[in-house]
Amino acid sequence: LAKHHDDGTPIDGATVGINRLTKIVLPTIASLYGAMLADVDYVIMGAGIPLKIPGVIDALSENRDCGLSIDVDGVGADGEDYAVTFSPRAFWAAAGAPELARAKLKRPAFVPIVSSVVLAQSLLKRADGKGPNNGIDGFVIELNTAGGHNAPPRGFKYRPDSDEGLNERGEPFYGPKDDVDLAKFAKSSNGLPFWLAGSYADCDKLCDVLDMGGAGVQVNCLVSTLHNIHLSHAATTSSL
Fold first, then answer.
1. Which of 175, 212, 235, 239 has a Cα-to-Cα distance from 14 of 20 to 30 A?
2. At what angle do helices 53-61 and 28-37 cross, to 10 degrees?
3. Phi-psi region of 196 (alpha: psi -120 to 50; beta: other; left: phi over 0)
4. What one-character-per-residue DSSP string does 134-181 give?
5. Closest C-alpha to 118, from 175, 178, 198
6. With contact defined as beta carbons under 8 Å apart, do 43 and 55 qualify?
């Protein structure tokens, strides 16, 4: 539906992405497969380190079996392993339409959300997808002002019985160690596109990102952003 006008006619060049949380494992594979059946173009994931997601996307695009491990509280290192698994072929066979598992699906671009150069480099080296970048197709760099599922400040440990390291709103303090060296990021991201998030819905900052080789910015309220930065339609389409 997102790729169509209200009257049901297709929108030329429409691009649609979905955003998933790495730490919410149980529905991930099913939601990815459903989105891919609907021709999704991008998968964006943060709230964790999504090392296994590129491999899952690769498998689903080829209708191969796949799975993700589940962390279970109270299970020791020698305990039973838990995982959620999915078989497209078994699913379609049970649905009475096994032929639907024979055609390959378009593989959406995978764009993880990161908050450091080290994490981006780790994903490029350790993710289990195909290709020279192990299934990584770009990055969203979320600074701490982006809100949402931020990584905690470096060295911070939450203590429920103490307000040490917290501001008056109960939020942790971020310092210089938590800043992202954007110039270094641009040099170490293997030429992949990256978008900035966290107080970057501003014309001057968007220009800064583009000048350093970034692809654009991530915004919350698109309508408000367009009103404030006054970009042309072509620039808007390519940068946001």
1. 212
2. 40
3. beta
4. TT---EEEE-GGG-SSPPPPTT----TT--TTB-TTSPBP--GGG---
5. 178
6. no
Whole-number Å distance between alpha carbons of 212 and 50: 26
Q: Which two tokens mark 20? A: 């998933």
Is the alpha carbon torsion for 128, 131, 191, 105 positive or negative? negative
Average pLDDT on 119-140 reads: 92
Give the pLDDT band of residue 25 (cuts 50, 70, 90). Answer: very high
CA dist., res. 67 & res. 86, Å (int) = 6
**228 near 222, Cβ under 8 Å?**
no
CA atoms of 42 and 45, how far apart (whole Å):
10
Could you give the CA distance from residue 143 to residue 116 in angstroms, rounded to a whole number?
Answer: 9
Amino acid 173: pLDDT: 76
- Please, where are the H alpha helices in the chain? 28-37, 53-61, 88-94, 117-126, 182-188, 203-211, 222-229, 233-239
Please compute, for residue 15, the number of CA atoms within 13 A of its CA located in the half-sphere on the CB side: 10
Please count the other Cβ atoms lying within 10 Å of the Cβ belonging to residue 116: 17
Average pLDDT over residues 192-218: 84
How far apart are the C-alpha atoms of 82 and 26, rounded to whole Å?
11
Whole-model pTM: value is 0.81
pLDDT, greater one: 47 or 222: 47
Band of residue 158 on the pLDDT scale cut at 50, 70, 90: confident
Residue 58 confidence (pLDDT) = 96
